[in-house]
Amino acid sequence: LKDVTVSSDLFPLPFHIDNGVFRFEEDKMWFDKFDAHYGKSDLRLDGHLYNLLGYITQKGQQLQGVFDLKSRYILVDELMSYTETGFDDAGTPGVIVIPDNLGLTLNAVAEKVQYKGIDLRHFHGQLLMSNGTLQMNRTGFNIIGAPVEMNGQYSSLNKQSAVFDYHINAKEFDIKRAYSEIQLFHDMASSAASASGIVGLDYHVNGRLDENMRIVYPSLKGEGVLSLKKIKVKGFKLFNAVSRST
Question: What is the rounded distance in angstroms from the CA atom of residue 75 to the CA atom of residue 68?
C-alpha cells in the first residue's frame, strides 16, 4: 500500500498510510512496516491479525492480533475527540465501549504522548484489549520530569457508564508543578495549592466514569503511600501547632 487514506466511523479523522506491505500466511494477515499519519500523530506499525475469516463469517468469533507500535509523537486528543461532545451516532451520551469480539495486544513505544495538555515523555507499555476490557501492563513514562510506572484496567458497564482501576507509582515529582499541570492531581489534592517540595506517590485507585467519560469523584476509592521530601506547607493550623511544639 502507498498513499492510501482510510476512514472509520470510530474516529473523527482519517488514517493516511504512507507506505506498508500486507502479507498473508495461513490464517494470519501480517502488517510489515506500516508508516502512517493520523492528524498530527505519526505511527509505525508491525504485527499480524489472525482468525480474520472466522471473525468475518461467523458470529461470536474473536478477531485476534499482536502489534508493535512506534511513534515520535501521538496526540491522544485527536483519537478521542469523538467523545469530546459525549455523543454517539444516535445523538445520546455514551462511553467508549470495548468490543467483546476483539483480542488484541499492542506493544507501544512513543517519544512523546500528549493528552489534554499533559506531556508524557518516553512512553512504553503493553495494551491488552480482550472481552470488552482494556488493560495496561508495565506502562511507564516521564511526566513533569518524574518517572512513572502504571498498571490499569478499563471496561464499560453499559453505554452510559464505565469503570476503571489503576495503580500508579511516581517517584520524586515537584508537588507545585503537579498541582499546576495535572488536572486530576489538582482536583484530588486541593491542599497542594499551599504546599511546595518533592513528593513520591504509590497509589491504587478505582472508580466510575459518566456518559461523557468524566470521572465521578464520589465513586473514587483508593489507598496508598505519599512520601514527602523537603516539603513546605502554609496555612494549616495543625502543622503550625506541631511546628511550634517541636
Answer: 18
| Residue 16, number of CB atoms within 10 A of its CB | 15
Per residue of the chain (246 residues), what is the pLDDT tens digit? 999 998 876 667 899 999 999 898 887 899 999 999 999 999 999 999 998 888 888 888 888 999 999 999 998 877 654 444 444 444 456 677 787 888 999 999 999 998 777 889 999 999 999 988 999 998 999 988 889 999 999 998 888 899 999 999 988 888 888 888 887 778 777 778 888 889 888 999 999 998 877 889 899 999 999 888 888 877 767 767 777 777
In 3D space, the residue among 15, 126, 164, 11 whose CA is nearest the CA of residue 80 turns out to be 11
Regarding beta strands 133-143 and 146-158, do their DSSP bridges make them parallel or antiparallel, or are they unpaired? antiparallel
C-alpha atoms less than 13 angstroms from C-alpha of 11 in its C-beta half-sphere:
14
Residue 178, CA distances (Å) to 38, 113, 144, 146, 239 in order: 29, 17, 7, 10, 22
d(CA 124, CA 67): 14
- Please say whether the beta carbons of 160 and 95 come within 8 A: yes
- The cell numbers describing 55, all together, are 471473525
